Amino acid sequence: MAFAKISQTAYYVPEQIVTNDDLSKIMDTSDEWISSRTGIKERHISRDQDTSDLATRVAQQLLEKSASQPEDLDFIIVATISPDSMMPSTAARVQANIGASKAFTYDLTAACSGFIFALATAEKFIKSGLYQKGLVIGAEVLSKTIDWTDRRTAVLFGDGAGGVLLEAAQEEHFLAESLHSDGSRGQSLTSSQCGLASPYSDKTENHPFLAMDGRAIFDFAIRDVSKSIKTLMEEGQFSEQDLDYVLLHQANIRILDKMAKKIGIDRDKFLANMMHYGNTSAASVPILLAESVENGIIKFDGSQTLLLSGFGGGLTWGSLIVKI
Ligand code: ACO
């Protein structure tokens, strides 16, 4: 029986930092409003790098840190809702950039749950015994999908990428999993809606920009995501003590505070960095993971157990409990 483990982590964000005060110069908002409602203080916004550029930086770091060769990789999966193009995929662009000639590649679209869904999928590839090594990356340049005249959404998001090297292992590291979708509520969070456009169709409207029913998403996170995490823990017989840290999708500090209460896990176990990055959708959990490894909170020595959880457009939500 083959098992999979996360053997390296890495993240990369564009250099340019845009603070709440910077935003208040181009729209009717304030640091006070943004900080108090979301916890976000600043975000990184790309000047000239697209999603595959950010993902490539992460891939390069993962190879360097593990002293792996690009040809060692069996697959590259990039979770994103802001690809450079639909075709070629972001993952195929990364493959070309790093020269991973043997890897199969594809993008996975599950919004802010994308990295969790991709990691769960990749783990099964390795468990199958067919593949030994691959990259799972969450990467977003959301700044190109945002209506910068809409203060209700523009202040929430940022650009960035994070990822992991996943490898075959001798023992189980992925301890529990739950993945969910509810397409019937999909309209509460939308982006890049392409209308029909052929000479043979009734043309329909384009809605390129990200749009959101903030209240509905807030309630969804508190109710559905908390419930699914509680169920996952109950069914797997994990207690609060079994978890060292919880890494939730970094949408909003108030969501995090409320979910901690609702799930019944000590708030100190919830890591947070949305204050510096905003909401980076599929990149948020892997950026938080890699940053926490870098600053020594996550030891990465096989002694800690983490709950990783994403939730967002689709609607989608999913959690993994992993030993790291
Ligand atoms: N600056 C100043 N005022 C603003 C801003 C802003 N950036 N945005 C909205 N407002 C105003 C509104 O116009 C409104 O004014 P009005 O009462 O005069 O009409 C007032 O603030 C309140 O607006 P609401 O939308 O009701 O604000 P709310 O308290 O719901 O907070 C927020 C909005 C922060 C988005 C909240 O709904 C939320 O946290 N939702 C969760 C959704 C989320 O985080 N989504 C991220 C993407 S989805 C995901 O990652 C899962």
Automatic annotation (TrEMBL):
The active site is at 112, 249, 279. Keywords: Acyltransferase, Cytoplasm, Fatty acid biosynthesis, Fatty acid metabolism, Lipid biosynthesis, Lipid metabolism, Multifunctional enzyme, Transferase. It catalyses: (2S)-2-methylbutanoyl-CoA + malonyl-[ACP] + H(+) = (4S)-4-methyl-3-oxohexanoyl-[ACP] + CO2 + CoA; 3-methylbutanoyl-CoA + malonyl-[ACP] + H(+) = 5-methyl-3-oxohexanoyl-[ACP] + CO2 + CoA; 2-methylpropanoyl-CoA + malonyl-[ACP] + H(+) = 4-methyl-3-oxopentanoyl-[ACP] + CO2 + CoA; malonyl-[ACP] + acetyl-CoA + H(+) = 3-oxobutanoyl-[ACP] + CO2 + CoA. Residues 234-324 form the Beta-ketoacyl-[acyl-carrier-protein] synthase III C-terminal domain. InterPro entries: ACP_syn_III_C, ACP_syn_III_N, FabH, Thiolase-like. It is found in: Cytoplasm. One of its GO terms (cellular component) is cytoplasm. One of its GO terms (molecular function) is beta-ketoacyl-acyl-carrier-protein synthase III activity. Residues 250-254 are annotated as: ACP-binding. Residues 106-183 form the Beta-ketoacyl-[acyl-carrier-protein] synthase III N-terminal domain. Belongs to the thiolase-like superfamily. FabH family. Homodimer. NCBIfam families: fabH, PRK09352.1. This is Beta-ketoacyl-[acyl-carrier-protein] synthase III. It comes from Streptococcus downei MFe28. The lineage of its organism: Bacteria, Bacillati, Bacillota, Bacilli, Lactobacillales.
